[in-house]
Automatic annotation (TrEMBL):
Keyword Cytoplasm part of the UniProt annotation: no
Keywords of this entry: Membrane, Transmembrane, Transmembrane helix
GO molecular-function term, one example from the UniProt record: carbohydrate binding
GO cellular-component term (any): membrane
Cross-referenced InterPro entries: Cadherin-like_sf, CBM2/CBM3_carb-bd_dom_sf, Ig-like_fold, PGF_pre_PGF
TM region(s), chain numbering: 486-505
Protein name per its UniProtKB record: PGF-pre-PGF domain-containing protein
Coiled coil: none
Record region (Disordered): 266-286
């Protein structure tokens, strides 16, 4: 080839290279996302290592780390797509890992979860770094995998794909956990008095539970498996200690509990007080109108500090099965009285809301148990199924209402079981006063009592009261809290007397001198006391 032709060809080649370089530079300016080699692609890992074992019902976190990218010194966003079996595994949420900032969001669609982490604070992913923590809950046993796909990060305005991951999870059934009995304290009952208490247990696996008695029942006693109710009225020849052993099973595990019962000899003072046709009374001052009391029932128990005391009642027609509480003081022998009423208590200004089943008053002690000294006070009661059926009410609508502060307060009440005759309930109360058992609509919590709504009891105009001293109706709201206030005042007075006594002892010489002067002044030098005769 002629030398001039060779030179011309070289010049054209050089010009073509210059043009290609210029085009490449222009493209890089217009489109800053560059093409990186496979050797620069980042990697991702999941911890803990696969496979992960979980129990049904457990929640577990897995951590996503990214890195090993030499060009990923300023990561600003990360996108993840997770696919898994949602019937076995439930997605709970995603959060940024420690020391990672950014805005995280997720969308669940079909069997996939789309997670975006944007506005990251230029994370350095040259090394493997935890970025996102994801929470899952195991819903049922089985094997599944979490597939991480369509995953990429953006660093230095460059998008980097991340290889897909297959993270395996094994979900196994829980080892069966045994049920646990709710403790029943030792019981004490007098001869010919009725004892009733409920047996209850909880199960961490929420299995159905079956109750039974595995020891020989005392003669005359019964245990209703479905209602979980023990019932016994010991006779006069059954004095002494007894031990009843109960069992609860979830179908796999059996748990046992022994309840000691002591039957004490009956005495005249222990006979329950009842009235019929408006009769009956009792010496304990309550202020309730005599003719409004259908009957009374009471229980005597020693009250010991920090130990739950259960008062069980014996009259079959008494809707109150038991009253229990724990107190911060030793109360000694204590009487708890239940007055079952014919109508609304005369101590309140208005009838309880709803469809009322029974009205009653509950009084504990003589007012020494202030509400602030009592805790975990509970009332166990029963309602006849025949009444519920006749009034077409929902058993779950039955509530115990307490009158306090000129209003009826609905107490938290739970249906615990039932048999052919009764439904059984338990409720917690902040104190003791007039009560009503009623079917109440949902949403009603406190109802102010209005004047003129009280159900009256027909009788003589001169209504007798169930107290030793006559009390006028306008002054008969002698609630337990008021009696407690009187007790507090008495204690303060006694403390004042003690203080004055101590002060007088320190100044006794001065006081003796004063006493001598007074004795001389009033003409009683011998110091004797004389009683003035009545005229």
């Amino acid at each position: 080839m002629h030398p001039s032709i060779k030179n011309a060809s070289k010049k054209r080649s050089l010009n073509n290279i210059r043009i290609l370089i210029s085009i490449s530079i222009m493209l890089s300016i217009l489109n800053p996302v560059s093409i990186v080699s496979a050797a620069s692609d980042p990697t991702a890992s999941v911890s803990p290592e696969s496979p992960l074992s979980m129990y049904v019902g457990d929640t577990s976190d897995i951590s996503i780390s990214i890195g090993n990218c030499s060009n990923c010194s300023n990561v600003t966003s990360l996108n993840l797509t997770l696919s898994f079996n949602h019937s076995i595994l439930e997605f709970i949420g995603a959060n940024t890992s420690n020391n990672v900032t950014g805005n995280i969001s997720n969308i669940i669609y079909n069997d996939s979860v789309y997670i975006e982490l944007n506005d990251m604070d230029e994370l350095n992913a040259t090394n493997l770094t935890p970025v996102i923590d994801i929470s899952f809950k195991a819903n049922k046993s089985g094997n599944t995998s979490i597939y991480f796909n369509n995953t990429q990060l953006t660093a230095n305005s460059v998008s980097y794909p991340i290889s897909s991951l297959d993270y395996k999870i094994e979900i196994i059934d829980n080892m069966n956990r045994a049920p646990e009995f709710v403790d029943v304290p030792p019981q004490t009952i007098k001869q010919n008095k009725n004892l009733q208490f409920l047996i209850n247990a909880t199960d961490p696996d929420e299995d159905d539970l079956n109750y039974s008695v595995i020891s020989e029942l005392p003669e005359g006693s019964t245990f209703d498996n479905s209602a979980r109710l023990f019932n016994w009225t010991p006779s006069t020849d059954q004095e002494g200690p007894y031990y009843v052993n109960f069992s609860v099973s979830d179908g796999k595990c059996y748990v046992y509990m022994e309840v000691p019962i002591t039957v004490e000899e009956a005495s005249t003072d222990d006979e329950k007080t009842a009235s019929s046709g408006g009769g009956g009374g009792g010496s304990q001052t309550t202020g309730e109108a005599y003719e409004n009391i259908e009957f009374k029932d009471y229980a005597l128990k020693p009250v010991v500090k920090d130990i739950e005391t259960v008062f069980s009642f014996g009259i079959e027609d008494n809707s109150i099965i038991s009253v229990s509480f724990t107190t911060a003081l030793n109360g000694g022998q204590t009487k708890t009285v239940v007055e079952i009423l014919k109508g609304t208590s005369t101590l309140v200004s208005g009838a309880a809301p709803g469809n009322v089943y029974k009205n009653m008053n509950i009084w504990v002690g003589d007012g020494k148990f202030l509400p602030e000294l009592m805790s975990d006070a509970k009332v166990v009661f029963k309602v006849e199924k025949s009444w519920i059926d006749a009034n077409d009410v929902d058993p779950d609508s039955i509530k115990l209402l307490r009158y306090s502060g000129n209003a009826w307060e609905q107490l938290p009440t739970s249906l615990t079981g039932g048999n052919d005759v009764y439904y059984y309930y338990v409720t917690r109360t902040p104190g003791f006063s007039p009560f009503a058992i009623a079917s109440v609509e949902e949403g009603i919590t406190n109802v102010e009592a209005s004047e003129g709504e009280t159900e009256s009891v027909q009788g003589d105009d001169d209504v007798k009261n169930s107290v030793d001293d006559m009390v006028t109706p306008e002054n008969n709201i002698a609630t337990q809290n008021e009696r407690s206030t009187g007790t507090t005042v008495l204690i303060l007075v006694l403390l004042g007397v003690v203080f004055i006594g101590l002060l007088g002892y320190n100044k006794r010489e001065y006081c003796e001198q004063c006493y001598g002067n007074l004795r001389a002044q009033f003409g009683n030098p011998d110091g004797k006391r004389y009683r003035r005769s009545k005229k």
